[in-house]
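quick one, 212 residues, struct below
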Amino acid sequence: MFSYIAGIDEAGRGPVIGPLVICCAFCKREDEKLLKKADPKDSKKLTPKKREEIYKILKKFCTFRWVEVSAVDLNKLMGEMSLNDIEAKVMAGLIKDLGEGDVMIDMPDRYSWTFRARMERYGVTKFEAEHKADDRFPIVSAASICAKLVRDSKIEEIKKKIACDFGSGYPSDAKTMEALKNKETRTLLGPYIRTRWKTIQDLKQTKLFGDE
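---
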């Protein structure tokens, strides 16, 4: 395989509804100038329209691979391991078949040695990881954009399927919290709710979940 640069980032770590999406973006080292010219940024700093525009440019010379971890899978896996372990396991899987190249990861752990130990546990030793890498490294920004687009698309699919606008799925979103507090919409959202999240545990301690 060609020599490459690769970046890995996620979208949907914090929401209480919907999937976690982890993406790996990579391109030939010789295309790094095109990458910088496209000027990708951390997806959180871009409008939906701008993310789409930049992604179309990036797809001309970047390859994207991603893994969607559903709420059902997260609920099951978090009974066996931490969220950081889940992320590390998926990231390791994305890296293993890439061949020779340089990999930068937006680090989910607080400490680099903790994250490195996780990755080594899953068979990957050659990589770099930093906090806010999606802000500093264009190839990680590219992964961030793709992950965000995929997750947003999945959220829209869920809304259409259950005919309910529950917002973004984040606890800070008033629409999301209203949907969770309503018994009817909460039932519809059942397969997409991350039951092990603190938000849900807190709601269960209140009378809001007393009708169940």
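The chain has a mean pLDDT of 91.
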